[in-house]
Amino acid sequence: MKKVYVVDGARTPFLKAKSKPGPFSGGDLAVGCGRPLLARQRFAPTEFDEVIIGAAMPSADEANIGRVVSLRLGCGDKVPAWTVMRNCASGMQALDSACMNILAGKSNLVLAGGTDAMSHAPLLFGPQMVNWLADWYGAKSFGQRTGVAVQFRLAYLAPVIAILKGLTDPIVKLSMGQTAEIVAERFGITRQMMDAFAADSHLRVLAGCAAGHFSEIEPLIDSLGNIYTSDDGVRTDSTPDRLAKLRPVFDKVYGNVTAGNSSQVTDGAAMLILASEEAVARHNLQPIGAIIDSQWSALDPSEMGLGPVHAITPMLVRHGMSLQDLDALEINEAFAAQALGCLAAWESTSYCTEKLGLDRPFGSIDREKFNVDGGAIAIGHPIGASGARVVLHALKTLQRTGGKHAAASLCIGGGQGGAMLLERL
User: Fold this and answer.
1) Residues 371-404 pLDDT 10s
2) What is the rounded distance in angstroms from the CA atom of residue 193 to the CA atom of residue 225?
3) Residue 310 is among the residues annotated as catalytic for this protein
4) Domains of the chain and CATH, by start
5) Which of 33, 88, 99, 352 is catalytic?
6) pLDDT (tens digit, 9 = 90+) per residue, 8-61?
7) Active site residue 33
8) 206: left (phi over 0), alpha (psi -120 to 50) or beta
9) pTM score, two decimals?
């Protein structure tokens, strides 16, 4: 099987959304990690065959954010650029789209990744206000406008929060957090288990930072000269006892999923350079690894958090591999219940036989290989960027540990899963 080489990669610090829009747009974030990434390469940005960016919620003035980023990075007028969207796996979809074009011989050198400034998600007018405005602008005379004016109600101004709409599945009418509650119920995942996993995610990120395991992060500088050097959502005081004091968010009566054991709403970007064997030879590149396979799978949207199980399993089976053959496994921590649910599903005879078509449990993985430096609960989950982040960090982990193979995966709102099988060169 042909390989697609990963030449290099970088990401921004992931910045937790506060009470107002953050200092960077989605384009700013992608450019912020893209510029230093391209500056250290042996080829000019104009030599890319294409630029592909995943983004779940680009702003109105960056609709085709891939082209915006490409031009701002100096790739030039002649390099085509485009944007992809597959919810939480948009960044991974960008990488996979690049792989497909490289394997097909259409491209040799591609800049791909993902970005989202979730703090910039808009507030929208509801349908009553939209209809009132349509009547107002359609009125031709003073009398008509007077008639429309008296129909106005202050309640029309109540905003619709776009990010909450986007994080609710329109088919099953459940928020992503509610789907995590369903997964927890299926596998008996308790509040204590969730909070312990969440606290451990923070500890792992802190330990990884102290050990220098996040070398892929490039600092950002905002318009006021403030410097951002590291992920700012990680907490030194996240303990199971403290997390236990938080109230459930999605099922306030019986639920166990809280803000503390869920991923954070975050701004961030991650970018990778992918190349064919021909491009590696032509530019005398030194790849950090290769993408050797990918898999997209689907399942019941009400249990969307189990998507990684449905994507990773057939991919590994195709290569005659098991979970034990992986030297690193990165699964995006949308929720502690979801991450724990994936591990439980692989160990469940009934789930593996009924849902995956296996004749036995698929197995387990050493916890020291699973999200070894923590995950989105502590780092954050900028929807468009996370798919590229988990791939990049899995490769960095292989480099550091000397491991051979890793898998990176995400659950996807709407009931899907995406995964990539990676190899250290």
Assistant:
1) 999 999 999 999 999 999 999 999 999 999 999 9
2) 42
3) no
4) 4-121+264-423 (3.40.47.10)
5) 88
6) 999 999 999 988 999 999 999 999 999 999 999 999 999 999 999 999 999 989
7) no
8) alpha
9) 0.95
